[in-house]
Amino acid sequence: MTIGIRDATPAIGTLASEASLQLSIVVPMYNEAECVAPLIARLREVLAAYGRSYEIVLIDDGSTDGTTRAILAAAQADPHVRGVFLARNYGQSTAMQAGFDTAWGDVIVTMDGDLQNDPADIPHLIRLLEERDVDVVSGWRQDRQDGALRKLFSRLANRLISRMTGVRLNDYGCSLKVYRRDLLVRTRLYGELHRFLPALLSEVGAEIVEVPVVHHPRRFGSSKYGLDRTLRVVLDLMLVMFFRRYIQRPLHIFGGAGLMCMVPGGLILAYLTALKIVTGADIGGRPLLSMGILLVVVGVVLIGQGLLGELTGRLLHEAGGRAQYHLKSLRKLHRETPPKTAED
Ligand code: UDP
Ligand code: MG
Predict the structure, then answer these.
(1) Which of 208, 263, 284, 332, by CA, is between 20 and 30 Å from 140?
(2) Which ligand 1 atom is at minimum distance from the Cα of 59?
């Protein structure tokens, strides 16, 4: 029997009917003990009035402050609440992925567990998702309640990410977003890439809109991030850009750089060999010789890396049974189908 990731991620708490679930609210939590109860109360209030079937998936990301106990208690008290308990602190992205892996709703909502996002925005975001017929609606904390320096860094990061990825958003970092599940399952989150999810999803065919949402200051606990995050975001952007451009053809980047080393290296060695043969000059001690050899060796290694990358890609797709493309969703295809004319 094959065990899918979904089956392998146990969650505490069950739902009456998973088959027809409309909404999953996915909330990663790391040391947010005081927030669990008020967050659930607020979500319950909003979602009960909204009238759609829902589940609240709380992911305990290796908390050490009583969050685990609070989530367990909530899952036991309310059948809408499910807890996923990670063995250690993996970080927000992995916690979110663990939530996605157990979430059943057709629409998946993500938000922070610290009450900075407001559940009251959820119905509005879902309405936009449906009205505009898009795949992701991303929140924009227009009136963000964080420190001035953090806001400045974040603004610069958002500009940079928008420009580099071509997916223009004012606020990549806002966790409050809604996704259609069929699109969300096309990608997986690694490292700290959760903020890049809109860019990653646009790669696999998602249409995204952004809409202002409310943002509250943190009432309990403290932020899990410092300003050093900006540096990591820049590194992550490089990673995302690499994947965006070269995931399907790694040889082009590594091989390209390899050729750029190998050709001049080869020319240098040919020149020195000719010099030796024609003039009999002693070339053994010349720095140019070391440079030529180094360039050729580096070139060979880089091309080898590219070929290895190509091999890994084939392994992933062929052994993993995954196609290297995604199809346009039927929903979008219907939208583009011309209406029937009288002669038809
Ligand atoms: N979080 C998590 N694992 C971590 C760090 C953060 O699950 O290792 C959760 C955290 O509990 C919160 C959300 O991710 O629900 C956002 O974190 P935080 O509020 O600290 O970020 P900020 O709003 O300051 O950017
Ligand atoms: Mg926060």
Answers:
(1) 332
(2) 7
The pLDDT tens digits for 314-324 are 998 999 888 98
End-to-end CA separation in angstroms for the chain: 49
Domain locations in the chain as residue ranges: 2-246, 250-318
Cβ of residue 99 lying under 6 Å from some atom of ligand 1: no
What are 179's strand-pairing partners? Answer: 108, 136
Helices (H), 175-249: 181-184, 197-203, 229-246
Helix, strand or coil for residue 156?
helix
Decide if 244 contacts 173 (C-beta within 8 A): no
Tokens of 120: 């009251």
User: Tens of pLDDT along 35-59?
Assistant: 999 999 999 999 999 999 999 999 9
Q: Does the Cβ of 116 fall within 6 Å of ligand 1? A: yes
Fold designation for 2-246? Spore Coat Polysaccharide Biosynthesis Protein SpsA; Chain A (3.90.550)
